[in-house]
TrEMBL record:
Residues 1-164 form the Calcineurin-like phosphoesterase domain. This is Metallophosphatase domain-containing protein. GO terms for molecular function: hydrolase activity. InterPro entries: Calcineurin-like_PHP (IPR004843), Metallo-depent_PP-like (IPR029052), UPF0046_metallophosphoest (IPR051693). The lineage of its organism: Bacteria, Pseudomonadati, Bacteroidota, Bacteroidia, Bacteroidales. It comes from Marseilla massiliensis. SUPFAM superfamilies: Metallo-dependent phosphatases. It comes from the Bacteria. It holds the Pfam family Metallophos.
Length: 197
């Protein structure tokens, strides 16, 4: 199974042409810049039209308009994950968004604890602490998320958020992918991460 991973497109998704072939396209959040409904609708229209067998997306901290939203009308092969899962060809994908309302309470910690132990591909917006999360002298990842990842050992953990740490790293049984597509100063695109599991 080939997975194409994007994150942090920040309303520049229509500039992404000639994306590589893959079985599943996954966007791990921050598809808007200002968190407006118009940006979110434009992204979903673009995303649904892409020629991939399955497409999965979650929300990042910029995608505030979708906090507690119920999304209807997506194509059957497009999956919005919000502390929820989908199984595709026997592989369990689980997505945890990053809404600021959850981060300033204990809800985000509870969301991480609730990640199912049988998750094969974990999709979050926030990185785990110490893994592709370093910028300006600070590790921005979540220690609670790292602890849960170490417990469940998913085959793949996809995230974004920290633009300067775009890349892929294998640690133990898990492949980690920071798919932040916009570079650190939002001027150019990084190449999307293509991962085989």
């Amino acid at each position: 199974m080939n997975i194409l991973h994007l994150s942090d497109t920040h309303s520049q998704h229509r500039r992404l042409t000639q994306l590589p072939d893959a079985d599943i396209l996954i966007h791990s959040g921050d598809f808007t810049m200002n968190g407006s409904e118009q940006e979110a609708i434009d992204f979903m229209n673009w995303f649904c039209d892409l020629p991939y067998s399955h497409k999965i997306f979650i929300c990042g901290n910029h995608d505030a308009c979708l906090y507690e939203a119920k999304i209807d009308g997506l194509d059957e092969n497009v999956h919005y994950l919000c502390n929820s899962s989908v199984v595709i060809d026997g592989v369990k994908f689980y997505g945890v968004p990053m809404f600021m309302e959850d981060c300033i309470s204990d809800r985000q910690t509870r969301n991480y604890v609730a990640i199912p132990a049988d998750t094969d591909v974990l999709i979050t917006h926030c990185p785990p602490y110490g893994i592709l999360d370093f910028d300006d002298g600070i590790n921005y990842g979540s220690a609670e998320l790292l602890a849960r990842v170490e417990e469940i050992k998913p085959r793949l953990h996809l995230f974004g958020h920290i633009h300067k740490q775009h890349g892929v790293k294998k640690d133990g049984l898990t492949i980690f992918s920071n798919g932040a597509i916009m570079n650190g100063d939002y001027t150019n695109f990084n190449l999307p991460n293509l991962i085989k599991i």
